[in-house]
RNA sequence: UGGCCUAUGGUGUAACUGGCAACACGUCUGAUUUUGGUUCAGAAGAGUCUAGGUUCGAGCCCUAGUAGGCCAACCA
């Protein structure tokens, strides 16, 4: 090997390497802290790959922590799906997953500690009053009349809050910082609120719950997290994050922000995704059009390709919008190497080889994947009647230099079969081509061609008596608008009406008969497809993952 | 009358911390090909938001401006 070029590091890696060099800690700890109130999406995948990837790279560990401080929105269903998705992506959080709710007692003690130090107080103002005193980004806030109440009094009331002496909203615990700070989050932020509500894990043990600011950072400290990575919108919380660490004198985790993922033609916000599910614009969280991890998995995107994608886009502090083409490229790259090839006809039209004996069947051999020698071969019966795709025939085609496929008197190769010449076709009364006639040349059998003929076009085909009728769900992008962050109207106005087209007349070659749910194929010249879990004994159902790259249709336009 | 962050080809990131702007995707040629796929060869495309400044030298530093993002939930 030559002198290896210095590997380029992203800004977080640079930070970590500096920390390592300075010996700031023995081991790197990161964490992935989802709130279990929805399904994970491609944006989370970026964060997962980042946090787990960094831990792997630097010999540290990444914790999975469910940030479950708000019993109103959180459910066990989501905990399970989140675990499944992370595992599928190929990451391991070790023997146990953590929950912020496991720390409720410790957090409560920390709050008491803060009050005792005079850094927090119980307020009795209503939400409305609190808001009024808060000021605005351009106006300073005003101090609450309860701000300077004796420590003992706050302590007493806080304990009473815990024991259920008050109704929702009657008291809050606030940090005592600075009501005139230009940073709104430093204007005596709320640390604890009363919610008489059952929590999905702690049941009704608690009726006070810490807010994000008093739960997240403290949990980081409890877990000895060294690098707490979050998205840019938490940047303004950092001064508070650090203030609490300092006042509480706890493990100094460091918060670092990075830009969240935005993807063209895609919506990446839990709230919006929920709206799509609840409004039945899609079939569910795992609808193959959804950018959820469960959705793209069902669509046929692979874990490997998503990790590759995350690696490609990197991480930075500027926010922009990533072209989905980058994601799609990663998927095609992986599938090209792994997916077995088969022949499939989306829009079948019958072609009769008039000089082929009736009832005679010849077995053709085809390799499963030319990119992978170890993938083996399969058999394909060739018969007098075959299906070809309607789009591969034109009654009056342009010059052979522009159109490689079949037309009257034109010759093409049937891949893994013979070269045929079109001798005619039949039309229905309505003028639709219903049957094509052709003659084959016996000297042109694939692999043992002695004719010397060269043809430009190669077509896929499926033997009529052996064809397998399947259902194909042809998915396309969910939205028509490139940048959905910039729209002003309802994002649902931008839905692609053709994001799902169901094809029930497609036929595949017989080798596909024993395909299992989850199997992925390349239908030659068409695209990548995955056997969907809706498949049943009567009918295989395929999801179109992506089409093949296509330089030809582009050229036409 | 606020504060913080960001600004590099169409898109996403680099540039060994001051030394003639690189990689991937995308686009366009051409070759190969029994997938109009893959692969291969090549091309176009930014002089780094603007204006000053420091310096022998600035995409990297400083100042001002501009543009975009974030911040006023008892959400995370």
Please give a structural write-up:
The chain is built from 13 helices and 27 strands. By secondary structure, the chain is an alpha/beta fold. Strand 8 (227-231), helix 8 (238-248) and strand 9 (254-258) form a beta-alpha-beta unit. A seven-stranded mixed sheet has the order 19-16-17-18-12-15-20, with no helix packed on it. Helix 7 crosses helix 8 (238-248). It binds one RNA strand of 76 nucleotides through helix 5, strand 6, helix 7, helix 12 and strand 19.
Notable characteristics:
557 residues, alpha/beta, seven-stranded mixed sheet, six-stranded mixed sheet, 13 helices, 27 strands, RNA-binding
Summarize the structure in short.
With 557 residues, this protein is an alpha/beta fold. The protein contains 13 helices and 27 strands. A 7-stranded mixed beta sheet has the order 19-16-17-18-12-15-20, with no helix packed on it. The chain has a 6-stranded mixed beta sheet with strand order 10-25-26-27-22-23, covered by helices on one side.
